[in-house]
Design goal:
- Chain A: Its EC number is 2.4.2.64.
- Chain A: It comes from Chloropicon primus.
- Chain A: This is Queuine tRNA-ribosyltransferase catalytic subunit 1.
- Chain A: Keywords: Cytoplasm, Glycosyltransferase, Metal-binding, Transferase, tRNA processing, Zinc.
- The structure holds 2 protein chains of 2 kinds.
- By secondary structure, chain A is an alpha/beta fold.
- In chain A, 38% of the residues lie in helices and 16% in strands.
- In chain A, the strands form 5 sheets. Chain A has a 5-stranded parallel β-sheet. In chain A, strands 5-6-10-11 form a 4-stranded parallel β-sheet.
- Chain A is globular.
- The N and C termini of chain A lie far apart (55 Å).
- Chain B has 2 domains: 283 residues, Alpha-Beta Barrel (TIM Barrel), CATH 3.20.20.105; 105 residues, no CATH class.
- In chain B, strand 14, helix 7 and strand 15 form a beta-alpha-beta unit.
- The termini of chain B are far apart.
- Classes of the chains: A alpha/beta, B alpha/beta.
- Chains A and B meet through helix 1, helix 4, helix 13 and helix 14 of A and helix 1, helix 10 and helix 11 of B.
């Protein structure tokens, strides 16, 4: 099927900040690579189960990731001022890179020259790239979705550009992450039109087929499809069924279309339907989830992987994560508070710095942002470790109850209780 | 967070070797907190006790960082000047116990404080720039801070003014600086336990008038018989005076000072400036200009060993501007064979350029690693040439190799 796209712009060299999508080669060139052989680039093994929760290991080309796992977002190839050494020390197994940002600047071609994203950013553990679709739709209000792909008008020169499943694969192949995401037709979960969701569900499967064909490195890069369907049970089942028909070529599944402002009841229900239906022996990735309570609930329902900008983004504004919720360091009351962020936390920041010293630094000095990011990443990594260990030790329900008691001393919200009940955990 | 064992003696300075041909010398500072610092060395500037971008776990990986310059003016809040922590500054900053560095404390931020805008206010007061705007401090509030902070070294206050000020203003500045030194001596003498581990650095305000300089230097030298005084600070430099005038002031002042006390100054803004300053007999120099280079996305790449020659690709011989598009595809490290964290871990010029373009904080972190290491490496070479008696040859060669780029 010939793909008609606007002509590739003249200037091929990556330019500073002009945001041009470098069509990586003419888009009607013969497509190489024939499908994906599952099994080589990813091995998944469940270590322990309790209820629906699983502790597992996912062997990837660059690292063996223990799950459930939280993946910090390194948008442009780095996680907010933290060095790879610090990330390793903090027990990060996998860092996420944003395809849209990286293709805009410096361009996947440039990253490929450097040997791929791992080489470029000097991160030797696992990496995951998204498809580029989500950012395009959320950042470019001139974006338009057609069967072709996501088209948009470049804001700087008005030129029409297109992100197709094939382009997304080509870009992600150049970036070289251990896990790549298929381009999905992402609809905001608060969009009221069921028709639109229906269209998106079917299109996501068609685009996944195109991604499978276009993917050139199945031996060392894993392509995950994304289950769509909005908040509708039937559409979700349709998406699940269609994708699982291709299960032989799928190393792992993502659950998308959440983290967009939907109500919590719908949120947990969708996760529940998906984890109940998806094959047990494949990892499950809930995209865009980063609030500790959401992660605990999803893990109870049988999910394994999470990513979110929340811990690092909120750190820049001086918000530190603690078992009881958050500590807002810029508040005036912090000026005289000589306690660490968290008395029980053993990270470098809590061992050495008081809230009062951090209060001086946050929002004003870069070291403040770095220190709070460091603590927040540590907090998330320790949370995941706690989840994993409690599953292995067969005390996960106690862990969950303990976690909820600290976070909600006056009782957890209804949705949490209902979600955990579905996971056979009484609060 | 319990208090650590209290130190009980002032830092000691020992003169090691004098160059002979110039005023340069090597020495050694030791403190009972466990720091041993060979001089001359560069002081790293800080904001509220931390470098611009390096957290302490990162800083301690740089071999050769011996001292941090902490500004009391960074610790102003709504209740005024104060640390208000109960612990000394070295702990508040999060220093690693196994790798302590010297804490050198002054009031104003020598890099950032804009002397053009704010005159001194009233008698006894000194204007200070804080995050909330410009306010005043005085000898009392400064001394209270020093007692809380327990730095290794404390500068006596100096009324630094721009070079363009008139005769009357300058006379007043010199007078106030001398008065403050007197008050500090009284404070230190009378405070018993509270300041016993803090070394006072006597400030001399360098001016264009040789007589003033001489008089102050002699007074400071006399004052240094007081056990509280462990060294001298030559202040008021890097404020618009000519190079000649700066050199003249440094030489004439240093000539009067006793050799067995440490000498500090701020002001150099280029590596050649730095060499000339050390030539006059300075032991501890502020290297705030390095922090400024980092903040601008620049990397220092001039050779820091004696055999190296400037890279012909580098425009001014000294620095790379990583913002430039010429680095997009450059896979090389900032500097070939550099042992700093950034270069030995393979971070490329292209990657750092990318990080700068994306406004990612890691860019400055990596640059600060490199630039700080680079400065330490340079200072080490300087010390070696002084030890071996070839400092003036080294300086001459160094100056000949570069087209001087004096944009400061």
């Amino acid at each position: 099927m010939a793909l008609e796209v606007p002509p590739v712009p003249e200037a091929k060299k990556a330019k500073r900040g002009d945001g041009k999508w470098m069509a990586s080669g003419p888009s009607n060139a013969p497509l190489k690579g024939g499908g994906q052989q599952h099994g080589k680039a990813l091995e998944f093994r469940i270590l322990a189960k309790q209820g629906r929760a699983r502790a597992s290991v996912m062997r990837l080309p660059h690292y063996d990731c223990r799950m459930p796992m939280f993946m910090p977002v390194g948008t442009n190839g780095s996680v907010k001022g933290l060095t790879p050494d610090q990330l390793r020390r903090l027990d990060c197994h996998l860092v996420l890179g944003n395809t849209y940002h990286l293709e805009s600047r410096p361009g996947a071609d440039v990253v490929e020259e450097f040997g791929g994203l791992h080489e470029f950013s000097r991160w030797d553990r696992a990496m995951l790239t998204d498809s580029g679709g989500f950012q395009m739709v959320s950042l470019l209000h001139l974006a338009d979705i057609t069967e072709e792909g996501v088209s948009f008008q470049n804001p700087t020169d008005g030129q029409s550009m297109m992100l197709t499943p094939e382009h997304s694969m080509r870009i992600q192949n150049k970036l070289g992450a251990d896990i790549m995401m298929a381009l999905d037709d992402v609809v905001s979960s608060v969009n009221p039109s069921l028709e639109r969701f229906e269209e998106a569900t079917y299109r996501t499967t068609r685009w996944f087929d195109r991604c499978l064909e276009a993917h050139e490195r199945p031996h060392d890069q894993n392509l995950f499809p994304i289950v769509q369907g909005g908040l509708d049970y039937d559409l979700r089942q349709t998406s699940l069924k269609q994708l699982m028909e291709r299960d032989a070529r799928i190393p792992g599944y993502a659950i998308g279309g959440l983290a967009g402002g939907e109500d919590k009841e719908s949120f947990w229900n969708v996760v529940d339907w998906c984890t109940a239906a998806l094959p047990e022996q494949k990892p499950r990735y809930v995209m865009g989830i980063g609030y500790p309570v959401d992660i605990v609930v999803c893990s109870a329902l049988g999910a394994d992987m999470y990513d979110c900008v929340y811990p690092t983004r909120t750190a820049r504004f001086g918000t530190a994560l603690v078992p009881t919720g958050v500590i807002r360091l810029p508040l005036a009351g912090m000026e005289g508070d000589h306690r660490p962020i968290d008395e029980d936390c053993e990270c470098m920041v809590c061992r050495k710095y008081t809230r009062s010293q951090l209060h001086r630094l946050v929002c004003k000095d870069s070291t403040g942002a770095i220190l709070v990011s460091y603590h927040n990443v540590h907090y998330m990594m320790q949370l995941m470790k706690g989840i994993r260990e409690s599953i292995v030790d067969q005390r996960f329900p106690e862990f969950v109850r303990d976690f909820m008691k600290k976070l909600y001393p006056d009782g957890a919200p209804e949705w949490v209780a209902r979600a955990l009940k579905a996971a056979d955990i009484e609060l | 967070m319990e208090g650590k064992t209290k130190v009980n003696a002032k830092p000691q300075f020992r003169l090691c070797k004098e160059d002979g041909k110039t005023g340069a010398r090597t020495g050694c500072i030791t403190t009972s907190r466990g720091v041993t610092a060979e001089t001359p060395f560069g002081l790293v500037m800080t904001r509220k006790g931390l470098p611009g971008y390096l957290t302490m776990d990162n800083l301690k990986q740089i071999n050769g960082v011996k001292g941090l310059h902490v500004c009391a003016s960074h610790f102003f809040d709504r209740s005024g000047l104060g640390l208000r922590d109960g612990r000394p500054l070295s702990e508040v900053m999060g220093q690693e116990e196994d790798s302590p560095v010297l804490v050198f404390c002054g009031l104003r931020d020598p890099v950032r404080f804009n002397l053009n805008l704010y005159p001194a206010v009233g008698s006894g007061n000194i204007s200070v720039e804080t995050e909330a705007g410009v306010t005043t401090a005085c000898q009392d509030s400064y001394m209270r801070f020093v007692k809380e902070a327990q730095p290794d070294f404390c500068l006596s206050l100096s009324d630094d003014i721009m070079n363009c000020n008139g005769k009357k203003r300058r006379a007043k500045a010199v007078k106030r600086t001398s008065e403050w030194l007197g008050e500090s001596l009284n404070e230190f003498g009378g405070s018993g336990e509270e300041l016993k581990s803090v070394g006072l650095i006597a400030s001399i305000l360098a001016t264009e008038r040789a007589e003033d300089n001489l008089r102050q230097a002699q007074a400071a030298a006399a004052a240094s018989s007081d056990p509280s005084v462990v060294g001298y600070a030559i202040m008021g430099l890097g404020l618009g005076e000519s190079e000649e005038s700066r050199r003249g002031a440094l030489l004439s002042i240093c000539g009067q000072l006793s050799k067995d006390k440490v000498r500090y100054t701020s002001g150099p803004s280029t590596p050649i400036d730095l060499l000339r300053t050390i030539e006059c007999g300075i032991d501890v120099v502020d290297t705030g200009f390095v922090n400024e280079l980092t903040a601008c996305g620049m990397a220092m790449v001039f050779p820091t060993d004696r055999e190296g020659v400037p890279d012909p690709e580098v425009e001014d011989g000294f620095n790379l501007n990583l913002w430039s598009d010429e680095f997009i595809h450059d896979q090389r490290p900032l500097k070939e064979n550099c042992e700093c964290y950034t270069c030995r871990n393979g971070f490329s010029r292209g990657y750092i350029h990318h990080l700068l373009e994306c406004r990612e904080l890691l860019a400055e972190v990596l640059l600060e690693f490199h630039n700080t290491h680079h400065m330490c490496s340079f200072m080490k070479t300087i010390r070696t040439t002084i030890e071996e008696g070839v400092f003036s040859e080294y300086t001459e060669e160094f100056q000949k190799s570069y087209t001087i780029n004096t944009t400061s």
